[in-house]
Each structure stands twice: as C-alpha cells, then as structure tokens.
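Supplementary material to the annual report.
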Amino acid sequence: MNIVALFKLVPDLVEELEIDQNGTALNTDFLRLIINEFDDHAIEQAILLKERSGARVSVLGPDIEGADDVLYTAASKGADQVIKLTGDFQGKANNHAMARAVASTLKELQADLILTGVQANTDLDGSMGALLAEYLDMPYVGYVSGVNTVDGKVVARKEYPGGLVAEMEIKLPAVLGIQAAEQPPRYVAVSKVRQAMKTATIEERPLAEADLSGGSTIHRMFKPEAGTRAEMIEGSADEVAARLVGIFKEIGVL
Amino acid sequence: MNQDIYVVIEHLRGQVADISYLMLVGARALAQTTGGEVIAVLLGHDAQGLANNMAANKVLYVDHPALAEFTSDAYQKTLAGLIREREPRAVLFASSSIGADVSGVLSARLNLPLISSCQSFSADGRPISQICGGKIMAESDLPDTTTLLTMIPGGYKPEEGQSGKAPEIIKMEAPSLDNLRVTLKQYIEPEAGDVDISKEPIIISVGRGIQNQDNIEIAEELAKALGGVVAASRPVVDQGWMSTSRLVGKSGKKVKPKIYLALGISGAPEHVEGMGESEVIIAINTDTNAPIFNVAKYGTTIDLFDLVPALTEKLREIKKA
Ligand SMILES: Cc1cc2nc3c(=O)[nH]c(=O)nc-3n(C[C@H](O)[C@H](O)[C@H](O)COP(=O)(O)OP(=O)(O)OC[C@H]3O[C@@H](n4cnc5c(N)ncnc54)[C@H](O)[C@@H]3O)c2cc1C
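Predicted assembly:
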C-alpha cells in the first residue's frame, strides 16, 4: 500500500504577525514558518500505519524554506520517499491552486491513502484534503484521529463535538484529514535527522501551473479590534496574585 | 443565480447543532445585502421535525434512509444536485466535522468558490474570516457567483436563529444514493470521566504553555485552593497528559463557569468555541498579542510558573485565616 502524507508550512503563531503595506496579506519578510501541526500528526499516522501493517510512505510538501527540515525529519522517522514540490507560487498560492497542482503528482505516485492535516492556520478557501480528494475523485473524511486499514478499505475514527466518535469505513483510494494521530508525533534526536541528511535524498518534482480559481480576493486584512480587550493587570507575581484574589472576592467565589 | 442564502443545517443524532441557528442569523444579515431569502436545507430521514424552530423563510427538506446519519458521500451527492439546480447566492456550512467534509468537496466538484472560517458579514455583505489561530481577520470580496462559505461561532447568537414556529417546508427529491464510498460503522460514546466540566463553576484550564505533564500539578494545587477543577486545551489532551473528558473546545466540551482561568492558552478559535461564554475569563499568557486577551475580562502577561504558585499560596493563607 502506498501512503502519502502531505504537509504545508504555516506562520509560527508564537511570533508576532504583521500585515503588509497593502493591508491585504501577511507581511512575509520576517515570517517564521513551521510545519502545520496537524500535518505533523498526518505524517505520524502514516508512519504508525507502516509500522503496524506495512506500507510505503511518501512525504511531500512545497519547496519553501523549512521544507528540507521537515522532509529529513520525516525520513528519520521512517518515511521511504521524501519529495519537494518546486514551483514559483510557493507560499502565496491558495489551497485550490495547490490541490489542483498536487493532484497530478499524486496520480504519478499511485497513492492508495493520502493523509493530510485537517486544516492549517492560513486556510481561507477550505482545507487541502477535501479539495484534493475531489480533484482525484477519491472519497474524503476529515476530523480523523485514528486509522486502521482492512483489505481495500480503511476504518477511520471521525471526531464529533464532546468526544463522540464515528467509525467510518472508507473505500480506497481515499483522502483523510487528520486531526490527531493515535499518538503524539514522535520526537527524533537531532543526530538521527543529521544522519538522514546523509542517507536520504530529497526528490524534486515540478508543480503544474497555479490556477487560483476557487479562492477569493482579500479586500482587507486586520488584527482583531481591541474594543473588547481584557483589562490587563500589571505588577509583580505577588501583586497580580493579590489583585486576582480581589477579583475572586468580587465575583463571589471566595 | 438567485439572491437567496442557503444554510445547510447541521444535526447529529436528533439534535440540531447551535451553529445551525447561528448560521441562520448570519444568513439573514447577508440576505439583507443581497435582497434574497434565508433558506434552510435539511437532510435526514424522518427528521422533518427538526425544522420546527428555525428562523428561515423556507426549509428545503430531503429525506432518504442513507441520510439518516451523516456520511460525507451521501451529503455531497445530495447537495451537489440541489445547489447546481437552484443556484443560490451563497451556501453556508458549519466549519465543523460535518461542514468541512462537504464544503471543500462541493467547491471542487461544482467549481464554485469557497471562503472558510467566516465569523460575520460586514455591513455591505463581505465575509470576515478569522485565521492564524485568531490573530488575524480577513475580509473577502464575495465573488459574483454562487459562493460556498464555512462559518465559525462568535459573530451571531444562536438564540436569534430560533423562531419558535415551523417555517414552510418544501420536500425535495433525493438523488440515487447507491454505491457510497463512505459508510458509518458505529458511534463510539465519549468516556464519561470523573467530573463533568460543563457543570463546574470554577475551571482552571491548562494549555501548551504548561510544558509537560508534571507541571499540571501546580494547576491542580491552585484548583484545590480555589475549589475548582482542572480542564485543558487540545494539545495537552493529545499529548495524553489529561483525559479527553477534560477537553474544552470545538472537539471537547462547552463550558460556562463563573470563572475560567486560562493558563498558557493562546485562545485559538477552536478553544474559544468551548469557553467564550464563561462569565468571567481570566487569562495568564506571556504573549501580549495572544488572542485569549480578546475574550478575557482580565489578563496578565506574567509567567504562569511565577504567578500560579504565588496565587495558590495567597489562597491557602486566606483559607487558614
Ligand atoms: C478541527 C479542530 C478542532 C479543534 N478542537 C479543539 C478543542 O476542542 N480545544 C482546543 O483547545 N483546541 C482545539 N483545536 C486546536 C486549536 O486550533 C489550537 O491548536 C489549540 O487550542 C492551541 O492550544 P494552546 O492554546 O494550549 O496552545 P498554543 O496555541 O501553543 O498556546 C500556548 C500559549 O501559552 C503561552 N505560554 C507559553 N509559556 C507560558 C508561560 N510560561 N506562562 C504563560 N503563558 C505561556 C504562549 O504565549 C501561547 O499563547 C482544534 C483544532 C482543529 C483544527
């Protein structure tokens, strides 16, 4: 079975985000990109499936700064093939464009099961997985937190609010949007990643021309209005603790 | 294309989700700018009664045994035909386990634009989305064709989408729903857990800022001193540091305590969905720009590892006195 895990890189939300001069996009000059956390779970789920039932795992993502790191890390976790998609639209492309372009690469790879993060923090035109599934004419199930393969099918744990889970049976080939792997993404030592840098080869595949239709035009981008912002309590830990005690008393829980 | 706004009603096991009513309110706001009607779209089996309380001009109801429980394939097929045939101005889906399985696929299948994570509409009908974990808002142009949107909570009140009376219901023909690629095998009930956090008046909630499992103890100490319980954000639960029954948010429980003390939680929309209606939210987060401060009543940027022990100590002294 061929499993492909797809990732993208997104702004690290720990950093301060700036909006560009036109006021319609993020300022990417100093933007620090990291792997979309749910894609990291998708890679972990792919490796878990390989370990459990044997599979060939390919990991692929766009050729943006940070991609090599993700790919070598994936190789050190056990991915058999790591691929970088080269093209000129990089991080700017919307998910429709990306999904259309990636679809043709995925056909070449003859993927039976495609796993990708259920969403990414920059998604503005839906999530990759659902779009991709349709461009490949495969079924899609998202919000998945556990996958098992059983002859020609997968059984996925689909999450609903409140901890309710639906077990869905899905015919292969299929695309799943991963919310969480069955276990948290494993940690790999830097030395193992370094070793992968020597032994693994990152393949490059050119992406088809970007077709942006299906997205929308951003009229204005802004930070949430501060109108409702919290009353900030300043001072030392002791002073702040004292004020909080005061607040607890006002509310009547003390 | 007509000017009507369709709302795909989300329901699970006989319960209409709050977000469905909220979307009816959003649809009304959008319909006022387009001049069309608000039309609820209900898919199910023997589920017509679910429409009884909807603030919509009409309900389009499709009944079929294959629609009794949600599966992506059956919903996609049914809605694809309906949208293609009736060409509304916009179709609202919930940004949820159900809506997200359907909206993206339909966008690709019908070649229609999709705008996701929409929280509200501007006065001139532009969708405003919340992205980057709640740190950025994006106002999009509404494309000149039938547009699909997914909605997140926060912009409208579900109660306002409830009319108390049944709107006109129009029954629609279901398409052939054979050979589905996705089928529901079974539901697995959530674990009950030792406490029901949705009923607790005082919640101390820990996020990724707590760093590791051992550190959760300081939150437990604080909870004990204040007489509350400990809950968590998703990464803490995904790490296995706390049980799923303590999860607050979109995939966990909705809580409404008197006090919600958030320790090292950024305030991502999926978390806020579960705690935004708490009476008093107090946020402790070292990042001045953390979105949690936009929903909190009080906030402080002191390191939680300095503040929490000090606070616990003060509370203990008071108890002793
Ligand atoms: C479909 C879907 C459903 C989801 N459902 C849920 C859900 O039900 N519940 C949920 O919580 N999330 C949910 N999420 C995940 C959500 O998107 C966020 O990833 C998550 O809420 C982030 O958790 P966090 O705030 O604990 O972590 P982070 O976003 O990493 O925030 C950690 C915060 O801690 C602060 N911090 C760090 N160190 C300290 C310190 N020493 N003192 C004080 N502050 C510190 C940082 O400044 C940061 O703001 C869902 C996501 C998806 C896609």
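The domain at 197-320 of chain B is CATH 3.40.50.1220 (Rossmann fold).
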